[in-house]
Amino acid sequence: MSFLHSSLSRAGQAAKSAALVFCGVAGLARCQLAGEGAVLAFHGLRADGVATGVSDEGLHLRLSTFRAVCERLAKGYEVMRLAEMAEILERGERLPERAVALTFDDGYASNYELGYPVLRDLGLPTTIFLATGFLDGDAPLWFQQVDVAMRQGGRVGNTRTLGEALAHLKRLPDEVMREEVRRLVESVTMPLDEPEVMRPMTWAQAREMQEGGLVDFGGHTHTHPILSRCGVEKQRWEIRMCADRIRAELGAEPSAFAFPNGGVDDYTPETLGVLKEVGYQSAWTTVCGRVNTARNRMMMPRYGAPESVWEAEATVSGAFDLVRRWKGGVA
Asked: From CA 299, how far away is CA 70, in angstroms rounded?
């Protein structure tokens, strides 16, 4: 039933997006919102027709969809580096027409194996936000552990679905959440091999992409906690350790940071202070919205990964936002 509902929701979103494009709303939005930009947030990618072995398939976009979206953006938009976008806005200047930036969170191997060839073929720059402990191999992503354990029959409290379990865990203080995840993992027989889509990229792969000139790397903490669920010293350690590991492995100073989970309640004023202390020049949420000069550079918005070319067009053009403004801010 949940899969059917999800499929219907995706189909409905695609139809709504196509209607906004064909009715001219996307074109109108590009005119009315000129000088603003859009940033897309991807995570992992997956090959078409291959079972993922995870419940949260939405975290890993189909390769065919990713390629189609990138081809559309390459033809119709100004795909620019995230750092360049932030610098233009910092100067108080309007962005180029049709400005878009691409980002990935976490640091999955699929970013290199599936995504990078597409980006390289089309000449599209991107920024990958790294959870450095994931790449180091000493801090598996906790939400992936929950996904796999629940597929093996494990349960988190009275929750019945992965969505309910993650929502419960995300509300807890970080150390309490980690203990619950540890008990969950110990309660089941975990598979010896993690699903392919869950593998991290290697530092060697990151260096290869960096040397290719199209990919920049930003911070995403070391162990992927929700920062507002951590004390200030833990936040400082996570943010600084992440930056230190990127410097050590890539020889570059990370200028952009993406908040794990990325909602409005997932960081604090203290978080922003630590980011500035460590040297970050911009920080990015998962709150949807247009990028413009009115935004706080340490709380910048991003849109989720579009699941069709039509959704991509309606999103980056600003059509959804224009309709929302017509409705007085109601989605």
From this structure: 25
What number is the average pLDDT over the span 20-39?
90
> How is residue 74 written in tokens?
């390459």
Structure tokens at 126: 């991107």
CATH of 2-326, one of 3.20.20.370, 1.20.1560.10, 3.90.1170.50, 3.10.129.10: 3.20.20.370
Residue 16 Cα distances to 203, 304, 323, 330, angstroms = 40, 16, 12, 16
pLDDT digits (tens, 9 = 90+) for 163-216: 999 999 999 999 999 999 999 999 998 886 789 999 999 999 999 999 999 999
Taking alpha carbons only, the member of 221, 223, 192, 217 closest to residue 203 is 217
Beta strands 282-284 and 78-79, pairing class: unpaired
Among 264, 297, 265, 269, smallest CA distance to 283 is for 297
Quickly tell me which residue has 């990919």 as its tokens.
Answer: 215
Residue 111 has pLDDT above 70, yes or no: yes
Q: Which residue type does 153 have? A: G
Give the start-end residues of each E strand in 126-267.
126-130, 215-219, 256-258
